[in-house]
Amino acid sequence: PALVDLTLKALGFSGEEPVKVKEGEKPIREAFLRDYQLHFVEKKFMQKLAEKGCGNAAELLKPENSALLTAYLNTRNETRDYIDVLGEYPEIKWAPQEFCDTLRALNIRLYSISSSLKAHPESVHLTVASVRWMSRGRMRSGVCSTFMAERWGGETTAGIFAQTQKHFRLPDDPSTPVIMVGPGTGV
């Protein structure tokens, strides 16, 4: 919510402006909260920025400057989000739908189950580390990890996406020793 509010402020929007999303029309604040990724600037946004007359964006988009574009957007601990770039070019104005059309849809977040149905037959447990980092003088945070840690009331439900791993199965003989590795969680 804080990132959404800062982005709306940088754009000069109230948050009530209607925008079209997959399921129809909704206020831009709600679309930012539920439909779009605001954490990292996309190339499509930079292309639109160049079309709107930003010479620096046009220069960064030249094929020979692809490494410079990557460094501009994604240097470790110096990543830029939309607030950063909008602040660098406050003279460039956006219509609500025009801005949303440059954004990437909010992606699902994948987590591994860290509980056993034998131990907890009626629930699923996840191990999640809240993602936080400092960039450009502002504290940043992960979309889903901080939602679960800070804003999701444990007594309510949240939407899930379940995915099975067809190639993962234990040996037929339950006495066979196995080594299991859970990479990618960072926990």
How would you describe this protein?
The relative contact order is 0.13. The strands form two sheets. A two-stranded antiparallel sheet has the order 1-2. Strands 3-4 form a two-stranded antiparallel ribbon. It has 187 residues and is of the alpha+beta class. The longest helix is centred in the N-terminal third of the chain and has 10 residues, at 2-11. The two termini are 26 Å apart. It contains eight helices and four strands. It has helices at 2-11, 28-34, 43-51, 55-60, 66-74, 82-88, 96-100, 143-151; strands at residues 18-21, 24-27, 132-135, 138-141.
Q: What's the end-to-end separation, in Å? A: 26 Å
Q: Output mean pLDDT.
A: 87
Number of helices: 8
The beta-strand count equals 4
Oligomer: single chain
Strand content: 5-15%
Structure class: alpha+beta
Helix share bin: 25-40%
Q: Please mark out the parts with pLDDT under 50 across 5 or more consecutive residues, or reply none.
A: none
Which term fits the overall shape? Answer: globular
Biggest sheet strand order reads 1-2
Characterize the main sheet: 2 strands, antiparallel
Helix-strand sequence: HEEHHHHHHEEH
Radius of gyration: 21 Å
Produce the secondary structure layout.
Blueprint: H1 2-11, E1 18-21, E2 24-27, H2 28-34, H3 43-51, H4 55-60, H5 66-74, H6 82-88, H7 96-100, E3 132-135, E4 138-141, H8 143-151
Helix pairs in contact: 1-6
Summary?
With 187 residues, the chain is α+β, with helices and mostly antiparallel strands. The chain contains eight helices and four strands.
